[in-house]
Design the sequence.
């Protein structure tokens, strides 16, 4: 078996086309949605993700505002930058690029973001709304964390069902695993989820029971072909820089062994799978926030 490719670039293009249409409609009403970003430090991966986010905003007709601080910035300086973005009328919603440098309390920084301007869905109020919103029909509208929402969109566009299926998520982090478990178990989505982590005793045995596997741990090629049920859908989210090419470009490895393509029914490439969806769903969160801010 060769797995069908869950092409994140194609799926992200469809999301971005819809966002661009909605941005154009808002502009006709005099509203220009704006994304703000705050980058602290000089991690090359974070810098390249933030640069990509600004490129995306230009592509869909949005405005963007970029705040940068050195790796030596204090917690107070970071909180002051968050306050500037909270107060900036040109910023509809913004993100604080994670991870923050060692010694900075990430939760305090995320909590300082105005929940109405939270483009990442990571403010405790918005995560709480996700917890409460097990029934989307009665839920308060709130941004969803971008990678989990992107994974659901990628599966939906490729008609991979999750309702009634067993999804095994590897990784309990706040940007992917934990909110993904909440999203997948909402009414209407109706998956059964096993959320695994570094202390799960027999990871291979858990993964073998999965109809859908989401690997978000950052361990190169952790998920082996003999862990995967034939025909399962496998989403490769984690990424590790494992060196540099001769031309100086970073060499990346996903969490999924390439041999899994011979066993799985569907496989997201990495790069080119979930990463572009994370960026596209960020744009959707910003345009959602802009539409919420104007009368219907
Ligand atoms: N505030 C946040 N910080 C971080 C998040 C997040 O959702 N919010 N997620 C990740 C990083 N991330 C977005 O910020 C992100 C990761 C990967 C990609 C992406 O498009 N990757 C490309 C490959 C890019 C490369 O060559 O390095 C791909 O997969 O094709 C976009 C965004 C942690 N921090």
Sequence:
């Amino acid at each position: 078996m060769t797995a069908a490719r869950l092409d994140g670039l194609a799926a992200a293009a469809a999301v971005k086309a819809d966002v661009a249409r909605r941005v154009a409609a808002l502009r006709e009403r005099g509203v220009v949605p704006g994304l703000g970003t705050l980058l602290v430090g000089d991690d090359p991966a974070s810098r390249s993700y933030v640069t990509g986010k600004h490129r995306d905003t230009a592509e869909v007709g949005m405005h963007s505002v970029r705040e940068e601080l050195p790796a030596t910035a204090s917690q107070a300086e970071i909180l002051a930058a968050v306050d500037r973005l909270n107060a900036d009328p040109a910023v509809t919603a913004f993100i604080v690029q994670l991870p923050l440098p060692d010694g900075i309390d990430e939760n305090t920084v995320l909590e300082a973001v105005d929940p109405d301007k939270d483009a990442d869905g990571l403010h405790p109020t918005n995560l709480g709304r996700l917890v409460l919103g097990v029934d989307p029909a009665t839920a308060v509208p709130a941004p969803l964390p971008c990678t989990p929402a992107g994974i659901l969109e990628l599966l939906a566009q490729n008609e991979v069902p999750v309702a009634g299926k067993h999804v095994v998520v590897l990784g309990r982090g706040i940007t992917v695993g934990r909110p993904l478990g909440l999203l997948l178990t909402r009414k209407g989505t109706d998956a059964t989820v096993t959320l695994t982590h570094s202390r799960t005793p027999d990871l291979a045995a858990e993964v073998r029971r999965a109809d859908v596997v989401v690997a978000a741990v950052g361990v190169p090629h952790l998920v082996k072909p003999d862990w995967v049920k034939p025909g399962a859908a496998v989403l490769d989210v984690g990424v590790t820089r494992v060196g540099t090419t001769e031309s100086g470009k970073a060499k990346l490895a996903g969490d999924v062994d390439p041999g899994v393509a011979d066993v799985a029914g569907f496989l997201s490439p990495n790069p080119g799978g979930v990463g572009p969806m994370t960026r596209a769903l960020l744009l959707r969160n910003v345009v959602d926030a802009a539409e919420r801010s104007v009368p219907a």
Notes: The pocket of LMY7XDAE is lined by residues 48-49, 52, 95-98, 120, 146-147, 175, 270-272, 275-276, 278-279 (CB under 6 Å). The CA atoms of residues 254 and 271 lie 8 Å apart. The chain has a mean pLDDT of 97. The domain at 19-128+277-292 is CATH 3.40.50.10860 (Rossmann fold).
